[in-house]
Design brief:
The chain is an alpha+beta fold. It is built from ten helices and 18 strands. A six-stranded antiparallel β-barrel has the order 1-12-15-14-13-18. It has a four-stranded antiparallel β-sheet with strand order 2-11-9-4, with no helix packed on it. A four-stranded antiparallel β-sheet has the order 8-5-3-10. α5 packs antiparallel against α6. The two termini are 75 Å apart.
């Protein structure tokens, strides 16, 4: 067969239209094979072989090239943001106050409604703690006995004061009599001293006359006796004067002692009355107690209604304090609680992207905030606010299923850029206690830097 083909090719004339001239004689001379083989391959009667390239192949190649360029551009221009996902809730920036019941009982009256503004000292609730006994309501019976006891003390105080007035009047009267008697005694002493002086002058005259022989010695002796009697009279009157002075001093001291005794008695009675008043107030508090607002603000939530039973220290309402003592309420902020494993790169000033659970972010978008404060130490579960602890721990457990429920959490305070959210074209104000998830934007770098990070780290060693 091959012999026939070779003869056919050899017998073909070079002038034949079907024969093709040699295109590459140099290649024919340099070939490794025989000359006949080269000529057989060079003189192909059907012409040179050309491969057809359809348009679809070019399109695919262009598309692949465009995709490759886009990938390279994305790698060199695109960025990767590292985020930390945590949970939290909205709370007033100035905190919130829990209004609690002081004693167990029945909530009898509520003086406020939710959203109402109150001032410091305003009555919020009235709790009834009445107890019934066989003879009636116990606190009422105790109040009657305490009232009788107080009336008795008041009557005793009035009696002691009346007795003191009578005694003081008697002493004052005796002092007046003594003063009058002392005045008369002074006059009597003056007369007695005058008589004694006259008797002394008369005795001197009698002694002179006796010396001249005009009077007898008996007469002179009689004058001496009269002088002695008058001296004794003056001494008796002086002693009586001293006794009156002593009586005056005793009455004055008795008057002062009576006043001091009255003061002591009145003080004891007043202490007893104060003790009774305290017992009356305590008994009244056992019957009903008023719960007042500790400071100005707005009542956010009322958890109990009149007629419901409450326990001691049980929360009745939540009060949002007013801003700086004014009537305006503190704006809301977001408080995030994060475990220690995500706190390595968290810093103040970082941007926070917030997703409220009440408003799905797929429809209402992400809300922005900025970190303004980070707690220096973590909060143990027991240190969290009592009315928020269960919600905070539950949200933290949901955001990190592998975490420990007893793990301490850091508090991150976030200032909101807006106090409302657009809901179908209407600005809906945010409310305290709304739960949320947040992404803390920590680091932003290009994709090629992220890919080359291991190489760069190895080069720096």
């Amino acid at each position: 067969m091959s012999t026939i083909c070779q003869n056919t090719l050899t017998s073909a004339s070079p002038d034949s239209p079907q024969a093709a001239p040699a295109e590459h004689p140099a290649a024919v001379n340099d070939t490794f094979f025989r000359k006949e083989v080269a000529l057989a391959h060079a003189n192909q009667w059907m012409g040179a072989i050309r491969l057809a390239q359809p348009m679809s192949v070019r399109i695919v190649a262009c598309v692949a090239l465009a995709i490759a360029l886009c990938v390279f551009a994305y790698i060199f221009v695109g960025t990767v943001t590292r985020k930390a996902r945590v949970t939290g809730m909205t709370l007033p920036a100035g905190g919130s106050l829990t209004i609690s019941a002081m004693n167990p009982g029945i909530l009898s009256r509520s003086f406020v409604t939710e959203g109402q503004a109150v001032v410091a000292g305003q009555a919020l609730f009235e709790v009834s703690t009445e107890r019934q006994g066989g003879s009636g309501e116990i606190s009422m019976l105790v109040a009657q006995q305490l009232t009788i006891q107080k009336n008795t003390l008041v009557a005793e105080r009035r009696t002691r004061m009346a007795q003191h007035r009578d005694k003081t009047a008697a002493i004052d009267e005796r002092l007046l009599n003594i003063n009058a008697e002392a005045l008369e005694l002074e006059q009597e002493i003056a007369l007695a001293q005058r008589r004694r002086d006259l008797a002394k002058a008369s005795l001197a005259k009698y002694e002179t006359l006796q010396g001249n022989g005009f009077v007898s010695a008996a007469q002179t002796q009689q004058k001496q006796e009269e002088l002695i009697d008058l001296g004794a009279r003056v001494s008796t009157l002086a002693r009586a004067k001293l006794q009156l002075q002593a009586s005056r001093l005793n009455l004055t001291a008795e008057r002062k002692a009576s006043a001091g005794e009255l003061d002591n008695t009145i003080a004891q009675l007043q202490r007893s009355e104060a003790s009774v008043d305290k017992e009356i107030a305590e008994n009244q508090s056992r019957k009903t107690s008023l719960i007042l607002a500790p400071q100005a603000g707005a009542v956010a939530t009322i958890t109990y209604r009149p007629g419901q039973a409450v326990l001691a220290a049980q929360s009745l309402a939540l009060l949002i304090p007013a801003a700086n003592g004014k009537q305006t309420v503190e704006p809301l902020e977001v408080q995030l609680y994060a475990p220690s494993r995500v706190m390595g790169f968290v810093a103040t000033g970082q941007t926070v992207l917030i997703r409220y659970q009440a408003y799905p972010y797929q429809k209402f978008g992400l809300q922005r905030g900025r970190i303004v404060d980070i707690s220096k130490a973590p909060f143990a579960p027991n240190d969290l606010p009592p009315h928020l602890a269960s919600t905070i721990l539950s949200n933290a457990q949901q955001s990190a299923p592998g975490g420990n429920s007893s793990e301490a959490l850091f508090r991150i305070r976030v200032q909101l850029s807006r106090q409302s959210i657009d809901v179908y074209g209407v600005a809906q104000p945010l409310r305290a206690g709304m739960t949320l998830e947040a992404d803390i934007v920590q680091d932003r770098r290009r994709i090629w830097e992220w890919i080359a990070a291991p190489l760069l780290a190895a080069a720096q060693r």
